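Whether sequence alone determines local backbone shape is best considered at the level of individual chains. For completeness, the protein is quoted in full, as a sequence line and a line of structure tokens:
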Amino acid sequence: MRAPRRPRGFTLVELLVGTAIGALVLTGIGLVFVSQASQYQAHASRRAVQSSVRKAMGFMERHVRNAGYGVDPDRAILAYDSFDALSNARGVGYPDGITVHARDLYFRRRATEVGTDFLRFDTELQRPLRKGEILLVLCPGAVRYAYVTVGETAPAKSFSVKLDTTPAPVDSPLGPPGALFRELDTLEKEACFHDTEPPVVVRVERNSFYVTAFDEDGDPATEGTTPYLMLHRGVDINDDGAIDGADATPLAVGIEQLQVAYILNTLGDTPPPLVGVNDDVPWGETWHIATPELERPRLEDAYSSPRRLGSHPANIRQVRLTLVSRSTRSDTQRPGDDVLTPGAPSAGSSALPDAAPTWRPLENLGTTPARAFDPRGGGFSRAVLRGSIAPKNLLMRSQFTPVHLGGG
């Protein structure tokens, strides 16, 4: 009978071979995990970029489409080419800004007393009328009317509001309404505002869209490099007595470019004029003021009138918006997307062409975009979305008094 064999362990060679094989397997699993995690983050970043630009475009489209409802077409839409929000002035290589005006569907009051600097209503306010809000005072029949601006916030439950009698400020997307909404002289001169039948007062909503950049991580190297699409309503939201950038509301993160173009009115087979691609977009109210009085379109003008065929904001028939959204963080492992017209590589990114073609993806951006708004490289994922909106209310040919009982 043989003696039982004693248990035998692994040799050193076997242990080394097994360890090596295990390390290879674990390394492979780790590499797959890292690759999949990286892919997931990249796809999540792109989804966030696309979601942000779609939401921003949808919000802007709703307001641009409503522009001019109950508001004269000559002040329904204002444009700001290359707006530098930090200095609140026109710059070089910055995104555009746009302001739209439309009447509030619910606010309606009778003005029992109209003064040179105040209005008294027939019923109390249900909510505050803040400094900077625009009111439209309509005489009976709406043949005569005047736009005025609230000068001091009127609290809820009050029956009167003070009007702004200060000189009109320079018009901008992050400031109060300008000269087009300071018609106190008309309010004072027209007898119908002080007649037996009281005029009707409605509210005009102002929505300005522009792009600015903030520092979010405290790193001096990235200061002011996180772009946002902003909304400013031209009113003193924070009740500090001033109407400025502090009253703006961020709408969407990562929106680094907003470019605006217009298609103007035309007749027959004549190609419609396109403003904003090869021409400078006029700055805010200067488009209105620079147009001679005899050439400005009037509400009663026929659509074939020569005044309806000029380069005036009242003749806008389509607004084209182009938005560029980018990821909030850069990926150092990739050069980043380039949404400008491709050219020869330069400094890790595509260069802009020397001569501007008749069409570029971003109207009027120029060849030297500002640092925080340069839609090239940097390791950022980007998405471009363009929308064309027809503001049908600009076809309005007469003012009207609302028939609803009102409130607000």
Summary: Residues 258 and 323 are 5 Å apart (CA to CA). The first strand starts at residue 77 and ends at 80. Residues 342-359 have pLDDT under 50 and may be disordered.
